[in-house]
Structures are given as structure tokens and as C-alpha cells.
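A quick aside before the break. I want you to see a complete sequence-to-structure record at least once, exactly as it would be stored in a machine-readable document. Don't worry about memorizing anything.
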Amino acid sequence: MTMQSRDEIVAAVKARGYFDGWTDEQLVARNVVKLVEEACEAVAESGLGDNSEHPSKNAYWFKRYAREYTRIARAFFNGGYCGRVKSEKRRAALISELHDVYVVLVVLESLLGVDIAAGALDKARGDVGRGVR
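That is the input. The structure line, written in C-alpha cells, reads:
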């Protein structure tokens, strides 16, 4: 992802209204919750547990809990709660985990043969007109 496309995605999210009324520190906490919601939605769409020849109870429960965490994350995010990164140590740990998330995204991008950054930019631009939901 280029710096320009990253900045365009952020600008589109700002234009949609999702930054309004929040500090940068609060937005970090809110976006971590949003990340959980989106990841859980991805689990629901992944086909996990859909193999009828070899059903897996673990896959079934993982997918079921992912749906529940999606619901909880939406309620948490929409309820206006905001946390904060309280220390440099915690900030560094969060950044390290986000590096892990990015590695997974790049691998998925390769496996699926898609440009996730380009799709994200199209999505963010398209969502501007929807405003905050």
C-alpha cells in the first residue's frame, strides 16, 4: 500500500464522519474494536466449518463465537465507549500485534489473488456517502 492510498482511505473515513468528536487516542481504541468486528465477519464468510465430509466441532464453535463477537463489537463500538492506550509499553505492544495482523492480510491477499489495499480504497470512497451508521 502506498502512503498516498493509505492517506486517501483515512481521508474517506474522516469524510464519512467517523473521526468526529473523538481524540486520536480514543480513535485507536475504537478502531481496534472495529478490527475485531471486521475479522469476525471475515470468519463468518471464510467457509470455516462448512466441510460436511469432515465436520469439526471446533470449527463450528469458532464460527459461532465469531458471530457473537461481531455482535458484541458492534454494540461496543456503537455505544460510544472509548478506551485509550495508557503507556508507551502498551502502544508498542499494540503496534507489534498490528504488524502480525498485516502479515496475515498480506498472506491472504496473495492466496486470494487480490489487491486488498485497492479494494479498501474503493470501499472507503464508496462508503463516504453513507455517513456514520
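Two observations worth writing down. The chain has two domains: 1-21+85-133, 23-81. Helices lie at 3-16, 24-45, 57-78, 88-112, 116-127. We'll return to this after the break.
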